[in-house]
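User: Here's a structure from my thesis project, written as structure tokens. My advisor, Dr. K., wants to see whether a designed sequence matches the one we expressed. Can you design one independently, without my sequence as a hint?
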């Protein structure tokens, strides 16, 4: 096969290997500890995502960290708090927290945002994202989170 033919095949087949829904650019986690016992503790999660479709076709709404389920909403970084619209090729943010509230003695009194929904399958990564693409439910694994330094509030 001629080298030029091989290069053309590679160039034209490259779009087949790119994700048609979204690409995870960065995934971080950061543990935190409140300054007083009643403030609680937990982990903040932040994913930066490149959307390959607009918000009318792509909805990211579920997240599992291990067996813990979180309802989530992706949005553009600089949009208003309740504006979850985005366009194709926008960089969007998926930010949520696993918060455990405690009393003055440090005993657990509530787990914030706890809703029970088992993951659809046993996944191998650090997390699983649930989303709909053109009204079809799909899932994508997050291989790992880059751990940031623990934040201790005073």
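Assistant: Designed independently from the structure alone:
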């Amino acid at each position: 096969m001629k080298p030029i033919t091989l290069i053309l095949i590679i160039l034209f087949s490259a779009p087949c290997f790119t994700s048609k829904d979204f690409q995870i650019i960065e995934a971080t986690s950061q543990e935190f500890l409140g300054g007083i016992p009643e403030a609680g503790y937990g982990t903040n999660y932040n994913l930066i995502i490149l959307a390959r479709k607009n918000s009318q076709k792509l909805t990211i709404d579920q997240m599992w960290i291990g067996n813990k389920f979180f309802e989530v909403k992706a949005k553009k970084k600089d949009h208003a708090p309740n504006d979850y619209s985005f366009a194709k090729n926008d960089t969007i943010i998926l930010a949520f927290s696993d918060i455990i509230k405690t009393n003055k003695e440090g005993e657990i009194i509530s787990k914030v945002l706890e809703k029970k929904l088992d993951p659809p399958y046993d996944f191998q990564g650090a997390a699983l994202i649930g989303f709909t693409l053109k009204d079809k439910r799909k899932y994508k694994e997050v291989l790992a989170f880059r751990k940031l330094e623990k934040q201790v509030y005073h």
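When you compare it with your expressed construct, this may help: The longest helix spans residues 3-17.
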